Amino acid sequence: MALDLKELRQLSGPELADKEKQLVQELFNLRFQFGTGRLENPMQIRKTKRDIARIKTVIAEVSKKEAKAKGS
User: Which GO biological process entries does UniProt record here (predicted)?
Assistant: First the structure.
């Protein structure tokens, strides 16, 4: 599901937070499947973690821009 940064930057703050929440839940499910031995593709855990990191980066960029605009 590798997310594209261009697509993420077009989303609003609440949409990004919702997407992050969904991916955290998916990561939990993947780890649970891995623990029980039912996960077919362990690389999916790494991809999901990276998608979460991408979203957090975009959220940080947006909040930084808002703080900069508010301070000026």
Answer: translation
